[in-house]
Amino acid sequence: MTDVRLNIWISEEAKDYLEQRKNQENKPGMNIIVEELVRADMARRQGSIIEQQALPALTEMVRSEVRQATAELRRELRQDRELEHIAERDFLRKHFDRVAGLIVHSIRNSGIGRRLIYSMLAKAYGVTFALQVFEDAKEKAKLELLPRKKDDQQEQG
Question: Is 108 within the bounds of a domain?
Fold first, then answer.
């Protein structure tokens, strides 16, 4: 590039600054410092123009990254919830199986107890009395298992 002459008027303060900077940096003339300042300003302004032009693209890139991160977080959350659901289902299944086993055990033991009591009553008081007690107990158990009416609950409360 060829150098061209530039005649400009500047304040005395600016000229003193250029002179001081020329002496500090041991430059042969103020024109080198002025050219450096102009180039720095050109680069800054071109950078801001490029920044303004690139801003929509950068914004879209950021939005895309945020969307992608959000989608990934949703996937991870869905997987975590599925694992928790499976663990909870296994936990409940284990305990329901345990309760079912206890219920079967209780039913079997109550059947054995009923037979033992029936045979003891039949030997002690006769078969007819044992049958009568058995039928009475069966009716009372049936009544206790039926849901109560609201009137009965209010009278007790």
Answer: yes
Among 103, 104, 156, 110, which residue's Cα sits nearest to residue 137? 110
Residue 51 lies in a domain: yes
pTM of the full predicted structure? 0.44
Distance between start and end Cα atoms, the chain: 106
Residue 10: name the closest of 40, 31, 41 by CA.
Answer: 31
Q: For the chain, how many structural domains are there in total?
A: 1
Burial label for 90, CB within 10 Å (0-12, 13-18, 19+), is exposed
Q: Mind listing the pLDDT tens digit for each residue in 47-89?
A: 766 766 777 888 889 999 999 999 999 999 999 999 999 999 9
Residue 7 lies in a domain: no
pLDDT, one tens digit per residue, over 19-51 is: 898 888 888 888 888 888 888 888 777 776 676
**Which residues span the domain enclosing 99?**
12-147
Give the ranges where 26-126 is alpha helix by DSSP (H): 30-125
